[in-house]
Design goal:
The chain is of the alpha/beta class. The protein has three domains: about 70 residues, no CATH class; about 110 residues, Zincin-like (2-Layer Sandwich), CATH 3.30.2010; about 120 residues, no CATH class. The protein has 13 helices and five strands.
């Protein structure tokens, strides 16, 4: 999953993947500058300093900063006990050696192979500085990030953070790295501006398998098939069910099935174009996006002929054939 905790401005809470909570004026005056500082430090991967600042101010009266605090604490706790091994000119591995059965070199080989595989599928070359961190086994991630981990686009590098248990099985590690690499490449192509459901749909490029049991659940109605907006909210950890981890897994499964439907329907090029449509880097596209009320809807109609809601319906129909 892509976790947007990057550059901080006065409207940080509107730019992140965490729903903003309205703070009272006093709390806003006290907490906003300190949390802005903590997030800037996190963006620079100075995680120990970020945690020192964040833990001092806390998660907020309404836990509005709770996800940020959990993520920063997880990375800082890991950093205090880990070592970093360089694999090649663009890839490093951070692990706590006593907690992993595989060496950093072995993990690095699996990671490099997985990243190359995913990026080659969508037509990009590897080479962006990347740090893959297997988090301390004692840390607790937010429920919507816990099953697979996340990627953050930091200033020194892209940082993939995976739960420690991922390193205990080569096959699981390979798939989880592929999934995060797919979100990374989707963020690059879309300038991180695509909706959460589309970023997660890129995980269709990985080797993840959606079980027949889950497919049957979607088709029978036992697992609810969400609309685009609803799916994006759930992927961000909002509107979760009583079991938030299961909710996160089902949301990822739906996104993967949608991604595979789109790739089967239009091909890799159309899927890539769907992502890059969100990138305002060219002057022409900047003005296209500026005057668009819904860029994702426009892109879906342009490259796949229909609005996202209809494509979701067709993806479910294809799943149930």
């Amino acid at each position: 999953m892509l976790l947007k905790m990057g550059e901080v401005s006065d409207n940080t809470m509107a730019q992140t993947d965490v729903a903003p909570q309205v703070l009272g004026s006093a709390a806003r005056a006290i907490r906003r500058p300190q949390w802005s500082a903590a997030l800037r430090l996190h963006h620079l991967d100075r995680v120990s300093e970020a945690y020192e600042v964040a833990s001092a101010v806390g998660a907020g009266d309404r836990a509005e900063f709770a996800v940020f605090l959990q993520v920063i604490e997880a990375e800082a706790t890991t950093s205090a006990n880990s070592s970093i091994t360089r694999i090649n000119e663009w890839l490093e591995i951070e692990v706590i050696g006593s907690q992993q059965s595989m060496s950093a070199t072995q993990i690095g080989e699996i990671a490099e192979r997985g990243i190359r595989q995913v990026w080659a599928k969508i037509g990009l070359r590897v080479g962006i500085d990347t740090l893959i961190t297997l988090l301390d086994e004692e840390v607790v991630l937010p429920a919507h990030l816990d099953p697979t981990g996340y990627v953050t686009l930091k200033k020194p590098c892209a940082k993939y953070c995976l739960p420690a248990v991922a390193g205990q099985d080569e096959s699981r590690l390979a798939v989880q790295i592929q999934m995060i690499a797919a979100c990374h490449v989707a963020a690059i192509l879309s300038a991180a501006a695509a909706p959460a459901w589309l970023i997660a749909a890129s995980e269709a490029l990985s080797d993840i398998v959606v079980s027949n049991e889950v497919r049957y659940g979607f088709c029978s109605g036992g697992i609810r098939w969400r609309e685009p907006g609803q799916l994006s909210r759930r992927l961000k950890g909002l509107d979760a069910d009583a079991n938030p981890v299961q909710s996160a897994l089902h949301s990822l499964d739906e996104a993967v099935l949608i991604g595979r439907y789109l790739i089967e329907k239009g091909g890799i090029k159309a899927f890539r174009d769907l992502l890059t449509y969100h990138d305002p880097s060219s002057v022409i596209q900047y003005f296209v996006l500026l005057f668009s009320n819904d860029p994702t809807r426009d892109a879906c109609k342009k490259y796949f002929g229909f609005a996202p809601e209809y494509l979701f319906e067709q993806a479910l129909a294809a799943t149930c054939k």
